[in-house]
């Protein structure tokens, strides 16, 4: 159980990954993303999650330079976009991401979506295995993969993904996927943990938040962590970035965890990975 902001989970290859990080989806490149990441690092965040398609890797790289923290103390994630899937194109996309970030290596690199219609994620994974073996990435994983995609990938792979980053929140608890990932020692990670703000007025969550003198967002993030799920809430506001990390001084009871689990509706705010084929 993570008990402080510096707590890490150990991936199946021994690499330590922070339980809580900053997501930068939809942050503008330039001052918005740079200031947000600098503020996050200043307040103790060490994990930053970006992607080629966010078009803000350069701003993240700028923030890393400005923050003045030793590179080895940071955990930087990026993702290969759908249109770059394939063996050679993934190798090239990775180098381009690294260049934009101004880094020599990544801590985690993910396949952004399975894109079943493309049928290229196995080739893409082979490229990522090569980058991993070459020491350019400390851990490799996938994003938005369902059990069927993971099974298909694993049966032809040398390396089992270390991470699967998926939409995860109290309305989409992904129980069977969580069980599958646990069984294969794949660390689950949540994007959109607050369901893009749509859960903040939920009366059940608000009541639990009142009991602890916390916000609904803090209760959801605490539930993520106690569920064994790494989480990367996004905010551009410094006070909210700080508040999102203030989740280590209370603990939800088993009953409260079960109550939150019971809010599940199998409801997504993002696309269904079986159907999302945008290049």
UniProtKB/TrEMBL annotation:
Database matches in Gene3D superfamilies: NADP-dependent oxidoreductase domain (3.20.20.100)
Example of a GO MF term: oxidoreductase activity, acting on the CH-OH group of donors, NAD or NADP as acceptor
Residues that bind substrate: 112
Alphabetical list of InterPro entries matching this protein: AKR (IPR020471), AKR5G (IPR044500), Aldo/ket_reductase_CS (IPR018170), NAD(P)_OxRdtase_dom_sf (IPR036812), NADP_OxRdtase_dom (IPR023210)
Membrane-spanning intervals of the chain: none
All copies of domain NADP-dependent oxidoreductase, residue ranges: 21-264
Active-site residue list: 54 (proton donor)
Residues annotated as site: Lowers pKa of active site Tyr: 79
Database matches in CDD domains: AKR_AKR5G1-3
Keywords annotated in UniProt: NADP, Oxidoreductase
Sequence similarity: Belongs to the aldo/keto reductase family.
PANTHER family reported in the protein's UniProt record: 2,5-DIKETO-D-GLUCONIC ACID REDUCTASE, NADP-DEPENDENT OXIDOREDUCTASE DOMAIN-CONTAINING PROTEIN
Name of the molecule in the record: Aldo/keto reductase
Lineage per the UniProt record: Bacteria, Bacillati, Bacillota, Bacilli, Bacillales
